[in-house]
Structure formats: C-alpha cells, structure tokens
Amino acid sequence: MLDEIACTCDAGDCDRELTDDQCMLVYRTGHGERRAYECACGAVTVTVSA
Ligand SMILES: [Zn+2]
User: Fold this and answer.
1) Could you list the residue range(s) of the whole structural domain that residue 39 is in?
2) If you measure from the C-alpha of residue 23 to the centroid of ligand 1, how many angstroms do you get, rounded to a whole number?
3) What average pLDDT does this structure show over 5-29?
C-alpha cells in the first residue's frame, strides 16, 4: 500500500506521480478527507476525497 500512487503533482510542467509515502498532512473536514502531498519539485498538491 505504501507505494500506491495517490495522485500526480499539480505543478504545471511537473506531473510526477505522488505516492502515500509523500503524504505529509491528512485532515478531515465535514466535507471529507484532505491530503497534502509534497512533491520532489517542492510543490504541494492537495487532494480531497469524500
Ligand atoms: Zn512536482
């Protein structure tokens, strides 16, 4: 599970794959779970899942 690809980097020309390994923050809101991933390029991508 650790190597599962969670999403790809949001930064315009990067598009690296982000895995659970790179997840540095998880928090829950009333609307679902948000996860912040830090890419090797330095950009942070936030995903939302219900
Ligand atoms: Zn990136």
Assistant:
1) 5-49
2) 13
3) 92
